[in-house]
Amino acid sequence: MGHFTPENLAKAKNTISVYPQARSALIPLCHLAQSQDGYLSEEAMVEIAELVGVSPAEVRGTASFYDMLHTEPVGKHLVSICTNIACMLAGAYELLEHATESLGVHSGQTTSDGEITLEEVECIAACDRAPCVSVNHRFFLDVDPDTFDQLMTDLRSGKHSSEVPSHGTLSRVERSLGLAVPREQVAEERAAADKARAERKAKAEAAGADKK
Amino acid sequence: MTVTQAPKIVTSRMGYDDSHTLERYLATGGYEALKKALSMNPEAVHDEVTASNLLGRGGAGFEAGRKWSMLRPNPVRYLVVNGDESEPATFKDRELIERDPHQLVEGVLIAAYSLQVTQAFIYIRGEFALGIERVTQAVNEAYSHGACGNNIFGSGFSVDLVVHPGAGAYICGEETALIESLEGKRGFPRIKPPFFPAAIGLYGEPTIVNNVETMSNLPWIVLNGGEAFAALGEGRSTGTRIFALSGHVNQPGTYEVEMAKPTFRDIIFDPSLGGGVRLGRDVKAFIPGGVSAPWFGPEHLDLRLDQDEVGKAGSMLGSGSIVVMDSATCPVRAAWRIARFFKRESCGQCTPCREGSGWVDKTMRRIEEGAGREEDLDLLLDICDNIAPGLTWPPAQTTICVLGPSIPSSVVWAIRMFRDEFLVHIKDGACPYA
Question: Taking all residues of chain B, what is their mean pLDDT, rounded to a whole number?
Fold first, then answer.
């Protein structure tokens, strides 16, 4: 326990507080853990499980469904090359081949200096500027082999550090306040909904009993 | 050419570098529509949306006003905005999210008021990091501007907005999978019936799920009236729509045009739009509405961008994304790449989709790589017929959601249109375009 830093633990609790059910915060907390550690560690999953009230296996089971959640460490820069239809038509496979050769790693692998993890991804929605690449989910567009090599050099030298945050950082803007609708109003609505639900259930059961 | 000078309804601020800021938004009429909506009663706002005949812009094209009237009466209801834009070649919601986040937020607030929900969620695809930052910023600003939160603009109506990030899964664009994901689970679609969101949605409560572009139209509709919106376009295809044009055109991009007026030929060739095919080549085939849509050939270029006209011709406008393939395109490779996408993104719940997508991917790949057999074409058609029996459009469904029935759209139509090219791959043992 205590895997999140005190600051991130406070953020996690704030995030949970904006959802009607804590489990909804599961994916946002996975992103938070990735922003802290660069990947989703076993320890983080255990703590997230405790915070949202599920088992660690449920956190892992959920996280493993999503491409952006990495349960193994990745490089400092996650370089994603789209090869879906629009990028393919613009030469994305040739770009991927070039990247594989110039970096010396295949999709899913990390360079030996730990700087770059290469991955081939599905459409990332910048099809008018194909082929497109994202680095830690920040877009670089109209990329050809030459600009790709330049980009890798610039990433290694830290030239893009202002626009490309470290891997796992999703949003550099955070919610500035909690929920504002008066809690009594929400509680009243909740109670009325629960009552209506119980009534529907009782009615359905009575109808079922009649049939028997 | 029938490219009309219709007003820009959702892209009016795109010319400004600071289009995403509250200052620009307020300077260009921002949040006036919300104030007007709050002065009306919620049903009257709903009536304007119904009168506009705004068709949902996510892909299915269902009337937004009609969807709203299906919301089951209940003390707790939710509004969820689908910003999980992941259909390959679709990139219009990303522009709206990144470049006019306040317009989206205002649309959501108007819908929340009309539907009388006290909490709404904006689910944004995880890969849209900048978009998540921009919308989070816009929501923060809307709260401090008094447009969101407790007693908005002194109207007595209160609502909370929460921005929720996805984490990379195409299937979460399907509304019931999106709800599962928002509940903190794997994005497994729910079976309908009974899980129509308007009846049993988020946390089991009635929920409306609407697309980003659909929401972004609401401020204009409230300010100008549903009738004015319905006066644009023709028939059921009213208003304007953003078309995302990509592939082998000279000027790929997003273009907001009046619905049902321009044709595919217009949007691909007009100098103010697509500007023609690269290197002056011919159109070999094009996809009219995202990769789930059956392909069209040059004979379909004169169809209008009208939901029903395209539907009758055997495909769909879907997510509004048009992919142009020129005469130098290998149709086997293009169809294989789309098949591979569905294989990667199948959630795995239903056998026809989970197994079928893998079979189609492998068989298509071996044809493209020159190891195909002549009987592979019948095999592909047979697999696809097991996924969507009859291979018609719209497809029959054997699965929980429509991802499965979308698998045949590229493969089967490519075989129908370019059987001779498939056979060349098989006979020559190689791709002639490689």
Answer: 97
